[in-house]
Amino acid sequence: MPSPAPERKGQRTRQRILSAARRVFAEVGYEKATIRGIAAAADVDKSSVIQYFGTKSNLFREAVHWTIPVAELTVTDPAETAENYLRGLLSGWAAEPNGPMAVLLRNSMTSEDALELLREQVTDHAVSSVAATIDEPDARLRAALLSAMLMGIASQRYLLRLPDLAAASDDEIVALTVPLLTALISPGSAAGSTTILGEPETS
Amino acid sequence: MPSPAPERKGQRTRQRILSAARRVFAEVGYEKATIRGIAAAADVDKSSVIQYFGTKSNLFREAVHWTIPVAELTVTDPAETAENYLRGLLSGWAAEPNGPMAVLLRNSMTSEDALELLREQVTDHAVSSVAATIDEPDARLRAALLSAMLMGIASQRYLLRLPDLAAASDDEIVALTVPLLTALISPGSAAGSTTILGEPETS
Lengths: 203, 203
Description:
Two copies of one chain form a homodimer.
Chain A: H1 5-28, H2 35-42, H3 46-53, H4 56-63, H5 70-73, H6 78-95, H7 100-108, H8 112-131, H9 139-159, H10 163-167, H11 170-185, H12 190-196
Helix pairs in contact in A: 1-2, 1-4, 1-7, 2-3, 6-9, 6-11, 7-8, 8-9, 11-12
């Protein structure tokens, strides 16, 4: 009878390769990264990388894949949706500077393949999920603007490390932006109009 | 008596080099760009590039310099400030895909020098100018969030070309976002609270 050990070892190797791949893609970029270099960074044979992932393109796709928390994005209260989304993004980026989203966004500025993946993930996952919760004819544009504004905040805070945003706490950012984002995805709602007047309902 | 012709010719050459430099920096990135390559793209001698700009670093600095329209950013009506800022950004990027801001942002993801310049321009110019118009203790954070959200929209629309944002018109984007941005830089104002309820004052 086979023991479960080899399978667990395989999972660990796979994760080690993915994590090394994100580091290498972040440092040298998609175009310059090589399977050989990633194997070296993960301390495995080149043949293992090929066995687990096939091509560099497949490896990149898996390394930068992240799951949009659709359940959290579609709660009944729009203010909660906006806050969940923002906090998820802020803590995700904060915890992992070489996380999938950061690596994908950084590479999408210089690689067409990465850009194509980013379009898929943002448009098919994030925008479509949020748009489904908005009962307006321009729901998709509202959801796309929400996503763009959040990415702008997260990228200037973590990728570009602009001082005023880097120095602020998550709570300060949530307090100032959640009322605005709520108004965007829930136009005319009581939440949108009340909170905008200066009483953000955080804390 | 010297004729003005040589000076005009010098200005034209300078502009041609700057424009070629932006193209090359956008295509191959700051690190891989060479003075020789930029000279070839501008159809001038390498020595001309050095004569006009000295080093690659200086050339980059001048090529990605853009002037933040401080006067427009500090009008009395915050809604107008927000709209001017957004429209300036949208039309600037739309008109020039290889414009200074686009080239700087793209390179700031992979070059520390570019990132340093971007921090200077966004923080010292944009954030400081807008913060000076906001009478709140967290004025700098509000201005930084405004800048981050606008950059998020502009970069997803033009650099990353996400379909929902790429398909929208400037007016649609202005109508949905200016009320929110106004509320951010003018908390508790009549403008912020009225427009957020569904009557954006565009058109």
